[in-house]
Automatic annotation (TrEMBL):
Gene3D superfamilies reported in the protein's UniProt record: von Willebrand factor, type A domain (3.40.50.410)
Entry keyword Transmembrane helix: yes
Record InterPro entries: UPF0353/GerABKA_families (IPR050768), VWF_A (IPR002035), vWFA_dom_sf (IPR036465)
Membrane-traversing stretches: 6-30, 51-74, 310-328
Source organism (scientific name): Aequorivita flava
This protein's name: VWA domain-containing protein
Amino acid sequence: MYQLEQPIYFYILFAIPVIVVVFLLLLVWKKSVQKKFIDKELLKKLSPNRSIFKSVLKILVLCLAIACMSFALVNPKIGTKLETVKREGVDIVFALDVSKSMLVEDIAPNRLDKSKQLITQIINNLSGDRVGIIGYAGSAFPQVPITTDFAAAKLFLNGMNTNMVSSQGTAITEAIEMAQTFYDDESRTNRVMFLVSDGEDHGGNIAKIAEEAAEKGIRIYPIGVGTVEGGPIPIKNNGVLQYYLRDKNNEQVISRLGEETLKEIAKTTNGEYLDGDNTKAVVDRVKAILGGMDKKEFEAKQFTDFKDQFQWFLAGALFLLVLDVFFLERQTAWLKKLNLFNEKEK
């Protein structure tokens, strides 16, 4: 297992192709200038030991030194020990609505992006808990199983979009049913589900599914994203608006926040409805809710004792820079004697 402390320094690697291009342009320029002012044979007599190979080698060594310096600044760390650690927390499942209605821009930047921001901020404020992510539209699908790897969870979360499910609609019931399979520990006292949605449902039978979840000890905290006034559903291509979604009667579809549906789910499962308009208020409330719950101890394996590796790359960079100083642009005597290219002496 490895970690990258400062990955931003990988941008230094872009200097390498720039150096190579400048070097090639310089070679072409030198050739053209030499042709104008001096004869080729005369140039060989004036500088008989000049080596193009050495010039290329110097640039290669310089590029390798820059690459090593970049990796040294990034400072990769390697986990040298795998340990089983004890953690205390709550199993949390996020169910994210990825239906087309989540593209409505009645809340900035749009409902889906706002939902991702909310979930990301909640995960950032967790400590010993485990998280899982479900996506749903016309059907539900598992995105991230229950895990303690928050970085991986956020990575998969960012990749979620409205094209992940071919069947459109908003089947909240399927999302709740799937969430019940995520909790693998029967003795876990607190099971939490955050249902992030605009509240539109086309699956029906929500009350029954919510009751089943409540019987299994699952508390659902719906987070409503959107406004009661609602807005049209924009269909875009590469960020450019193409048209607004219309129904079978060619009337523009207006999607509104279904607060009543979400509040019903919260009430049935002994949860609480949260208004997703204010990210900070939602995160603070979630922290308070989770802070008041009993934590369950569980085991988790993780890499520990991460050791810095920058020194190896730094040493390599310094060695290459020193080596570059000693490389001269004239031919090496003993290589010239080998006459590897069968050049005829004149």
